[in-house]
Structure formats: structure tokens, C-alpha cells
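Example for tutorial group B:
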């Protein structure tokens, strides 16, 4: 009985947590109405890099799939132009 109650509470809480997380999940580029991410602006792209200069996953950036894909391309282009590092110092 206690076990059932606990699992019920667990699912209830996770649903609540997911709802809160979904409400907070808003794409930065969609909300600011940016269609194309500029690869020539490394300061804007730096926010989406980890301390090891890796591209952060969607879980952390809270971007939509389209903008996460465009961001990855923009970061890779900026890296090729040496505006962003491939690895951190
Ligand atoms: Zn978006």
C-alpha cells in the first residue's frame, strides 16, 4: 500500500515537474524572432558553449530542434573562421 502510494506520488511529481519544465522551455531565437543565426557574431554563440568549448545539448540550451541545428552549423562555421575555439585552453 505504501509502495503504491509512493509510486503514485512519484508519477504525480514527475508530471508536475515535466509541466513546469515544458512551460519554461522556450526557444531563445523563436521568442526574439531570429530566423537565421549569425555565425559572424561569436559573442552571441559563446553562450551556447560549455567550458570545454563543446556545443551544449538541447536539454541545456532550451532551443527548438530547428534552431539547435542552425546553432550547431553556425558554431562550426565560426570555428572554421577561428572566431570560436575547437577546444578550450
Ligand atoms: Zn526556435
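The residue assignment follows.
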Amino acid at each position: 500500500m505504501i509502495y503504491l502510494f509512493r509510486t503514485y506520488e512519484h508519477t504525480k511529481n514527475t508530471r508536475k515537474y515535466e509541466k513546469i519544465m515544458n512551460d519554461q522551455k522556450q526557444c531563445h531565437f523563436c521568442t526574439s524572432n531570429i530566423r537565421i543565426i549569425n555565425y559572424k557574431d561569436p559573442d552571441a554563440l559563446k553562450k551556447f558553449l560549455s567550458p570545454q568549448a563543446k556545443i551544449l545539448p538541447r536539454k541545456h540550451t532550451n532551443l527548438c530542434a530547428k534552431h539547435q541545428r542552425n546553432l550547431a552549423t553556425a558554431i562550426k562555421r565560426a570555428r572554421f573562421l577561428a572566431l570560436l575555439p575547437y577546444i578550450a585552453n
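The pocket of zinc ion is lined by residues 27, 29-30, 63-64, 66-67 (CB under 6 Å). Compare this with the pattern of hydrophobic and polar residues in the output above.
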